[in-house]
Amino acid sequence: MKLAAMLDEAIGLEEKIHACYRALSRLSEDGLAAELKALAQEEKSHINVLKTGKNFVFRAPEAFGGEMISDAEIRMGLKAAGELEADLAAARVGFADGARRLSGLEKKFEKVHFHTSVEINDFCLKKLFEALARADAEHRQRLDRLLAGL
Predict the structure, then answer these.
(1) What integer is the mean pLDDT of 114-124?
(2) How far is the C-alpha of 112 from the C-alpha of 118, rounded, in Å?
(3) What is the pLDDT of residues 44-75, one digit of tens each?
(4) What pLDDT, on the 0 to 100 scale, is given for residue 9?
(5) If 0-12 CB within 10 Å is exposed, 13-18 middle and 19+ buried, where does residue 91 land?
């Protein structure tokens, strides 16, 4: 898969996860809803980070090496996030089940970002992807705390 296309799919994945947080916030009580909306907003920031990374593909292609994960892995994540989004929208899952599934997605993509989807030769850009991994880990931990409080 071409690098720009892979980053487009990673952006799509973050957009799906953002939508899942928004949908989950509508299923929750007021206190939890505010936390979930904050997480959704942070996912918007992840989208912007990935878009910035994509701009580097065209401006400084030497900043990247080869792809480190398969396009199938990203597509699997897109499918899982899309299914969760649909299940939440159709009320086929409740808050707790939705939060658990979303936590699982965050855990999976924390690893993807940490190992970076692509080999990155530019130190600053590499730090950007590492920051995404830390944010995914934090999101998972926050979700787990919300679930523990139920």
Answers:
(1) 58
(2) 9
(3) 998 998 888 788 777 776 766 655 556 677 78
(4) 84
(5) exposed
pTM of the model: 0.79
Measured in Å, how far apart are the chain's first and last C-alpha atoms?
42
* Among the listed residues 43, 66, 67, 63, the one whose alpha carbon sits nearest the alpha carbon of residue 53: 63
Give the range of the structural domain holding residue 116, as residue numbers without chain letter: 3-148
Give backbone dihedrals phi and psi of 119, rounded to 5 degrees, phi first: -75, 125
Q: What is the pLDDT averaged over residues 119-125?
A: 65
Q: CATH number for the domain including 64?
A: 1.20.1260.10
**Residue 34, CA distances (Å) to 19, 86, 140, 150 in order:** 15, 22, 16, 16
Distance of CA 109 to the CA centre of its chain: 6
Number of domains making up the chain: 1
